[in-house]
């Protein structure tokens, strides 16, 4: 049996995928099948070759651009001072993937990209690229699951908790260089 075919259509926005999931649910309801919206979103994601809705949502923009200007990915630059500590924290502890590394010449500082589930961060050992001790705010889904994943690693230097705040559930981590990342599952309708 051959692998399922992937649609050769490019999604322009998450709204397109949500519309497809709504249409799928309506069609199945017409045949007496009640499918939760989340499952319909996962089925649509599978048609585009994604593991699930979260993976697909990270790959397509929130909405179509209203005009000729369109922003794609934001990649905050975080200053690092020790490459091994940086990779241990971002790849080993936080579970990011090292996408690429760059040096202008051997022995010069590292500039690298790490990513996970749609979040892209740049790490730089170059003076002037970023201010040490910066804070990055990351809106996300699944903050409690991510928190449980990090706590299971039993890192003696980082045991983050989840705090209930007026704008959502937030977990803050601090890298070895004083940079803070606030992962926040925002309340629907708020922010």
From TrEMBL:
<dbReference type="InterPro" id="IPR000335">
    <property type="entry name" value="Bleomycin-R"/>
</dbReference>
<keyword id="KW-0046">Antibiotic resistance</keyword>
<protein>
    <submittedName>
        <fullName>Glyoxalase</fullName>
    </submittedName>
</protein>
<dbReference type="InterPro" id="IPR029068">
    <property type="entry name" value="Glyas_Bleomycin-R_OHBP_Dase"/>
</dbReference>
<dbReference type="GO" id="GO:0046677">
    <property type="term" value="P:response to antibiotic"/>
</dbReference>
<dbReference type="Pfam" id="PF19581">
    <property type="entry name" value="Glyoxalase_7"/>
</dbReference>
């Amino acid at each position: 049996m051959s692998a399922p075919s992937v649609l050769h259509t490019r999604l322009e926005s998450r709204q397109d995928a949500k519309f497809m999931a709504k249409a799928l649910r309506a069609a199945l309801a017409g045949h007496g099948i009640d499918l939760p919206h989340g499952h319909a979103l996962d089925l649509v994601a599978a048609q585009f070759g994604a593991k699930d809705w979260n993976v697909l949502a990270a790959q397509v923009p929130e909405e179509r651009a209203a005009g000729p200007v369109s922003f794609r990915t934001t990649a905050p630059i975080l200053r690092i001072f020790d490459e091994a500590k940086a990779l241990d924290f971002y790849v080993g502890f936080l579970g990011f993937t090292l996408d690429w590394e760059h040096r202008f010449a051997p022995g010069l500082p590292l500039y690298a990209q790490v990513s996970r589930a749609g979040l892209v961060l740049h790490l730089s050992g170059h003076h002037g690229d970023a201010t040490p001790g910066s804070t990055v705010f990351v809106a996300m889904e699944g903050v409690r699951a991510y928190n449980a994943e990090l706590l299971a690693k039993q890192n003696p230097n980082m045991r983050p908790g989840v705090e209930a705040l007026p704008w959502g559930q937030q977990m803050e981590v601090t890298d070895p260089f004083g940079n803070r990342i606030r992962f926040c599952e925002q309340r629907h309708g708020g922010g």
